[in-house]
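TA notes. Do not distribute before section.
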Amino acid sequence: MEEPHSVNSPRRILSFSKRRKAAASVSFLDPDERTSSGFGVSGEHGPKPSEVYGFVGSITTVVATAIFLVWAYIPEPWLHSVGIFYYPSRYWALAVPTYAMVIIVLAIVLYIGLNFMSTPPSTSLTTIFDEFSSEASSFLSHNMEDDDQPIEPISDLGINKINVFMFDNAK
């Protein structure tokens, strides 16, 4: 049976009762939300700032979109009849989204172009070797049994070994 001062939530059950049950009680609260006051709520009250900013941002976006659509599509005599006489030219209703899309496309093309310019050609040895390349060392003695051999250290495979693995059976 629930206590008279409890709140059921889909996420957890919060108890606002000041008296605590002994070892038989089960708590659904997170350990960081427990306080020493005896209440089952956290010390901070209210929503987090990021939640508030997200809510205000989403409401602002919806309102700004509605104002933009009213400004772009409602005829001027209707706006004048409502008492709206000062607004930007209708040219900007098409120009701003067009400029934004052109800037986005040019940024993507510039990003891809810079990546192609900074990538070495496929004939360059820097695509195979760099300052972190390491050759496999032959420290293992060949007289050890297969079960007693340690794991080989990390090393790069030479291009000649890769070619043998990939193309030797192609004959």
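Switch to the second chain here.
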Amino acid sequence: MDYTIRAANVEDCKDITRMIMELAEHEKVTDHVKITQKDLEQDGFSKNPFFHGIIAEVPEQHRTKEGHTKIGYALYFYSYSSWKGRAVYMEDLYVMPEFRGKGIGKALMSKVAQLGLAAGCNLLNFTVLDWNKSSVDFYLRQGCSNITADLGYQYMSCSGEALERLAQP
């Protein structure tokens, strides 16, 4: 299958928003999505972006029945490990179902890894749902390790009112 991987730009935010919702539907968490196209435009394409993105795109002759040519994406940002130094965190990796199994997800993940290495990163971190066996298996085939299973780390989060309370002096 013919496709290209390229840096996302502000004009891609409509399609990224669409695919974020598709990913949330797949993960059965659509009620958790609060992000808007405007948020993506502001947070990813301002002077000091909070994230970066890449897009998988197919030629017009391979567009979806809905007319989409942007068929996958990855969002990532840089972070830091107190043990290993510079890291890249892949927030999302998504390929539309009809385009899976064609190497596009691997190409997106490979590009994030390339960008991380070019920035001096030593780690590529991400999360995956424990019930998503096909994705867990895919990541293991890429040479990734399951740090929850191997080291016992749990990914934690604090948001909303709990975050507000925590921020109180």
